[in-house]
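Reply to dn_fold:

You asked what the input looked like. This is it:
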Amino acid sequence: MTKEPLVIFTPSGKRGNFPVGTPVLTAARQLGVDLDSVCGGRGICSKCQITPSYGEFPKHGLTVADDALSEWNAVEQRYEDKRGLKQGRRLGCQATIQNDVVIDVPPESQVHKQVVRKRAEARDIVMNPSVRLHYVEVQEPDMHDPSGDLERLVAALEDQWEIKDVCPDLHILHELQSALRKGKWAVTAAIHMGEAGERPRIMHLWPGYYDGSIYGLAVDLGSTTIAAHLCDLQTGEVVASSGLMNPQIRFGEDLMSRVSYSMMNPGGADEMTNAVREGMNALFTQIAAEAEIDKALIMDAVFVMNPVMHHLFLGIDPYELGQAPFALATSDALHLRAADLDLNLHPAARTYILPCIAGHVGADAAAVALSEAPEKSEDLVLIVDVGTNAEIQLGNKTKVLACSSPTGPAFEGAQISSGQRAAPGAIERVEIDPVTKEPRFRIIGSELWSDEDGFDIAVANTGITGICGSGIIEAIAEMRLAGLVDASGLIGNADQTGSARCIPDGRTQAYVLWQGTEDNPAITVTNPDIRAIQMAKAALYSGARLLMDKLEIDTVDRIVLAGAFGAHISPKHAMVLGMIPDCPLDKVTSAGNAAGTGARIALLNSEARSEIEQTVRDIVKIETAVEPRFQEHFVNASALPNSAEPFPILNAVVDLPDVSFNTGGNDDGDGGGRRRRRRRG
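and this is what came back:
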């Protein structure tokens, strides 16, 4: 019997086998994939656009052939002729499955559009941008002093503003004479003040006095999301913030999958570079429209990202980052023209990319260091930027160490049976009564808990669609606190736990968090879900513990959780799981999107750029891949919270039930579910 084709949807990660000829939209609906359709699959609305991906996908053990979907049909051609489809797009209601295929559902085709939870944190920043406006009055030409208009403008800038040795971009010469005469020998010049040994350059001219503003972008290019903050370069105000999913997700959710795609597919690196640059330009168009400004007024941009994204954004093959010794093409800060990166901003716009710290500790970690300044801290601070690849820093005024740890996408809701990214309808907060074992929860888009009056009405529009990263963290931690899960991560059965919500799931158990409806399936926490979180949190903890070993310490004074996801983690639940070292809960704080904040600092204060470049040179880099103790810590950290570390501070404030659900083949009836509660203190 021929095996039915395998269909994998990204970014959800949902997969299934379907008969040849099944429409993509039908497959998506049967798997619960978030793919829009208003016309019900009649080929009228075009809401169900998808992007098939072809080539080698080592992570999935899959090769996608060119004939994986049916041929382009007349309905798609009609829509292409009428409105146009983006390159590579198909209509999900028209394309049918013929062979194994990986299909990306772009953000605009999703019913529950992604909520990119990266916001601009309130922060005092000394204004010193690289691009500034200067109004000058220029001497008129004189038959007795035959100098050029440019030379007289340069002289005026030096005389009136003490800006010396200014030079123009070429396009300035095209518009200079017209601007001077239209402005009656006065112009407002946008000048890039020069850095890295560059001369100041005239970027733009307005006739007379220009009373508007100019703008810059602070961009956090993450593995999963791209977030941008549009800033007024004169006031420092964040005038708009926006984000989208990183289009590279269809090539692999984690960084090493993307490196593998590049290795296995000729031109794969170029594909990913083009994808992320197109995504950037779409984001910049979107954010300019939101702020109601001309995109050509964006004259500066600062970018932060991890090393793999750094190379792919710059068009550098990340091959060397996929193997020891993880050599970067360059770790230095870069000053480039936006046009060199195919970015559609002002024609003369400049970009600055923060330095990388090491092979897997990137410019985003440098931005976190700029924002949180561990090198200026009196006490010992552990900074954890929680993401697909966790970047960790530990130190104070004496020394700062840094490493990265491959946590994978589980914290983002991927690899979780009912998981999804943070979007309306996703469960984000969970509480479980330790006596009744009954849960209650909150979803994104509603402030009401599930047991409060009006909840059903409040969630009627979104439904309850899945569980996001912060939700799965709280769910598993609450299950541990309620005695539903033992220290090894096993869920007990109904008899062992006293809860009918614990149901058989293959050879293990699952906990029913929500019973579901006709429209939305039940949401459960399964043992594979817990295992995925255990692996992710063990990697995170092991990296932190390794840095502590290097400083020969067992405790830290405070912990800062950074990153869009870190901003939504409950410190107590994180510690119950053993994601972070034992520490007083009031000493665990969130820095929000610290990488984005660091990018804004570098955008609005050019002196901060040289400051972070020096700081990065002083940071001690630790490579977890070559550290023998990393694996030892990882094994210990797989337990909830830890099989070797005592966590006395945590045990003083919570009761962790001492239960074991590993029956080990016993037939004595208690199933190994004996319960002892740890004493406080």
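The two ends are 62 Å apart (CA to CA).
Hope that clears it up.
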